[in-house]
Amino acid sequence: MTQNDAPTLHDTIVIGGGAAGLSAALMLGRARRDTLVIDVGSPRNRFADHMHGVLGNEGTPPDELLRRGREEAAGYGVRTIPGTVATVTDVRAASRWASPTATSSARVRSSSRRA
Ligand SMILES: Cc1cc2nc3c(=O)[nH]c(=O)nc-3n(C[C@H](O)[C@H](O)[C@H](O)COP(=O)(O)OP(=O)(O)OC[C@H]3O[C@@H](n4cnc5c(N)ncnc54)[C@H](O)[C@@H]3O)c2cc1C
């Protein structure tokens, strides 16, 4: 393994940048956790033109809500990248990668392919 192949460590990797994932990422960012969101970009309501019943967002296009969410999370240092997470592997045993204080670590393999 070369220096360039070395894995990047994050406090948290959120799989999926829908409303749930971005909400979690926002709070993690506020808590100063180094957080990465990997999102393939297919939220379940992607076929709806407008959303309803979310306070302050009556009639907002769903993709606009997510755009705002990514922007708000980015304000706390959260980075969102496109990709599909294919596997998550526990790497606690691989002590070379895991922080000695980490209670759980994961090696995430993602591709940049969008759905
Ligand atoms: C047609 C329709 C209309 C709706 N209208 C409303 C409404 O008006 N008001 C309302 O409150 N709710 C509405 N909902 C419900 C709302 O869409 C869901 O509650 C909300 O989208 C759930 O958010 P989520 O983040 O859990 O999942 P999602 O929005 O589905 O987001 C999950 C994200 O994770 C990504 N992902 C999944 N697996 C991977 C992977 N392995 N690697 C990388 N990324 C991945 C997906 O591509 C997606 O971007 C509607 C739902 C539908 C289907």
Could you give the topology of this structure?
Layout: E1 12-15, H1 19-30, E2 35-39, H2 62-74, E3 79-82, E4 84-90, E5 106-111
Parallel strand pairs: 1-2, 2-3
Antiparallel strand pairs: 4-5
Helix pairs in contact: 1-2
Flavin-adenine dinucleotide binds at residues 15-21, 38-45, 47-48, 51-54, 84-85.
Question: Outline, from the CA principal axes?
Answer: globular
Tell me about the largest β-sheet.
Answer: 3 strands, parallel
**Secondary structure tally, helices:** 2
Helix proportion range: 10-25%
Number of strands: 5
| Low-pLDDT ranges | 97-105
Architecture, CATH level 2?
3-Layer(bba) Sandwich
What is the domain total for the residues?
Answer: 1
The CA-CA distance between the termini, in Å, is 30 Å
Calculate Rg over CA atoms. Answer: 16 Å
Q: Looking at CATH, which topology would you report?
A: FAD/NAD(P)-binding domain
